[in-house]
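Appendix C: a fully annotated inverse folding record. The material below is reproduced so that readers can follow the format used throughout the book. The structure is listed first as tokens, followed by the designed sequence.
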């Protein structure tokens, strides 16, 4: 993984000292809250419903065990003993005291972490496939490119006051696990005639006006990446709406101007600035790639793994759902579910963080990843070590065998924390998971992604859920709309609204009716919910959701 240079360390130290002074002036009253707000947002500090919230960047989701240990220490020392992993591969602390935030940032700086550009109208944390560098289907590890983009975008003088926040995602696999088509810019590594390059997707995004990104370039050579990105963001910076924040994202810019016109402007800008990129960026990328060299993989018998699968049903169930094929024979990618039935999706206690760090150190070549699906990944574990890893995880409440199943729910913090939320998300996720655990149906149901947002901003990605749930306020009462058929992969689609919303008391029975209807409708046990929905369309699912409408029609 990338290691800070002396410049990086000095930059973070100076930035933290600057913010410490700003905090002191806010506390003594020299700065009003209105004056302080843009300063704190530049350093990832929000004022939420009950307290401040610090959002810490985990660039492209990669952590070392030492970094995870420090995240746990911060949770204990300055928060309430836990952290919340987000859909942007960040971690959030929901209860810090303002006076403690500079100390938190200094502690992060000691392990080469920060909270810069996790907020504000700038280029946010660059995300990547959480299986990067390990996946068997990967063309190349996208993280060096993500790191190059991070360095280019951090404090970029032209892009600190964009019309709106700006998000970039990178994947090195044809199987998109980074939701690239729902980003302002999505980059997919592709190969053409033996040369690696990028498919460039622009104008994706969720929120109040969800859109799937469009292909701006089907093949961009690697050496053209930074100048082309700079051209895109420059054009957006000039054209983007600043009169209405709801129409300020690049998706609206592309929609209002048309992809052809927007693309022509980008190409014109690219031709102008390309000569200024003399190859220094590629030299930098080559150095970064050296930091991401793979670990020294071991060879060992797999007997213990196969024996455990044969003799221990719980381990077999866990290995069936929580393991993914690794590019190196004898290894597996382990997804640690932060979705125990009834738990808050994405939350991990400090003790759990330390355990995951220790497992990474002992069994996982000292690497962890955070997924946009709010789980933690051990990307490199030899199969001979998997029984020991599972045993330790199970003892810590982290051994739930549900990755990709109905209880592996993405959920934003909702009205329990967020000042923007219009409904609760966490209790709904907990109740759905608990209900289907009681029914003992989730393994029979199979792959099914439920995503829940507590407001129209869609931080829970509900638009691209197979079942999406949006919580809204209807005359002071929480109301939950259901969308169906969304997907966040290379075959991305926006879900279709099923009909009127449901109250908090009605939403769990509604989801149950929906899933039971799917089990009756699927053509055979291997047909997934999404496949069934795409085959049959909305009508039979709508009939299951609204049986009273069907009865009235009869």
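Designed amino acids, in order:
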């Amino acid at each position: 993984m990338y290691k800070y240079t002396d410049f990086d360390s000095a930059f973070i130290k100076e930035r933290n000292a600057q913010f410490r002074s700003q905090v002191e002036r806010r506390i003594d009253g020299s700065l009003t809250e209105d004056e302080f707000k843009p300063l704190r947002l530049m350093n990832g500090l929000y004022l939420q419903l009950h307290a401040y919230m610090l959002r810490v960047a985990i660039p492209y989701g990669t952590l070392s065990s030492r970094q995870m240990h420090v995240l746990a220490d911060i949770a204990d020392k300055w928060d309430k003993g836990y952290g919340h992993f987000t859909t942007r591969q960040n971690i959030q602390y929901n209860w810090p005291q303002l006076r403690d935030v500079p100390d938190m940032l200094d502690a992060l700086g000691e392990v080469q972490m920060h909270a810069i550009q996790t907020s504000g109208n700038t280029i946010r944390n660059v995300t990547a496939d959480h299986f990067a560098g390990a996946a068997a289907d990967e063309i190349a590890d996208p993280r060096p490119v993500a790191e190059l983009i991070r360095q280019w975008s951090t404090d970029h003088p032209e892009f600190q006051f964009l019309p709106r926040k700006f998000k970039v995602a990178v994947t090195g696999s044809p199987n998109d696990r980074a939701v690239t088509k729902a980003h302002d810019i999505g980059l997919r590594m592709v190969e053409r005639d033996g040369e690696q390059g990028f498919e460039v997707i622009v104008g994706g995004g969720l929120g109040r006006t969800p859109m799937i990104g469009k292909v701006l370039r089907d093949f961009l050579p690697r050496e053209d990446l930074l100048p082309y990105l700079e051209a895109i963001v420059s054009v957006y910076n000039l054209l983007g709406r600043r009169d209405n924040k709801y129409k300020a994202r690049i998706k609206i810019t592309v929609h209002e101007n048309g992809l052809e016109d927007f693309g022509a402007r980008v190409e014109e800008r690219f031709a102008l600035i390309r000569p200024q990129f003399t190859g220094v960026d590629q030299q930098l990328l080559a150095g970064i790639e050296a930091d991401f060299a793979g670990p020294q993989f071991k060879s060992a018998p797999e007997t213990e793994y196969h024996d455990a699968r044969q003799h221990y049903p719980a381990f077999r169930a866990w290995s069936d759902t929580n393991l993914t094929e690794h590019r190196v024979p004898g290894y597996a990618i382990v997804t640690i579910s932060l979705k125990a039935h009834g738990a808050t999706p994405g939350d991990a206690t400090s003790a759990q963080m330390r355990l995951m760090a220790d497992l990474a150190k002992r069994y996982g070549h000292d690497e962890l990843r955070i997924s946009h699906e709010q789980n933690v990944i051990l990307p490199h574990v030899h199969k001979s070590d998997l029984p020991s890893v599972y045993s330790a995880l199970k003892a810590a409440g982290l051994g739930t065998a549900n990755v990709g199943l109905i209880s592996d729910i993405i959920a934003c913090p909702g009205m329990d924390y967020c000042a923007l939320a219009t409904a609760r998300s966490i209790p709904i996720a907990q109740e759905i998971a608990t209900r289907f655990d009681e029914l003992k149906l989730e393994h029979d149901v199979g792959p099914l992604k439920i995503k829940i947002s507590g407001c129209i901003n869609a931080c829970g990605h509900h638009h691209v859920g197979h079942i999406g749930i949006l919580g809204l306020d209807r005359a002071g009462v929480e109301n939950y709309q259901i969308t169906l058929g969304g997907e966040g992969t290379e075959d991305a689609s926006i879900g279709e609204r099923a009909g009127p919303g449901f109250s908090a008391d009605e939403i769990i029975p509604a989801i149950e009716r929906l899933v039971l209807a799917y089990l009756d409708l699927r053509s055979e046990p291997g047909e997934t919910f999404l496949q069934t929905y795409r085959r049959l369309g909305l009508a039979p699912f709508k009939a299951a959701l609204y049986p009273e409408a069907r009865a009235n029609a009869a």
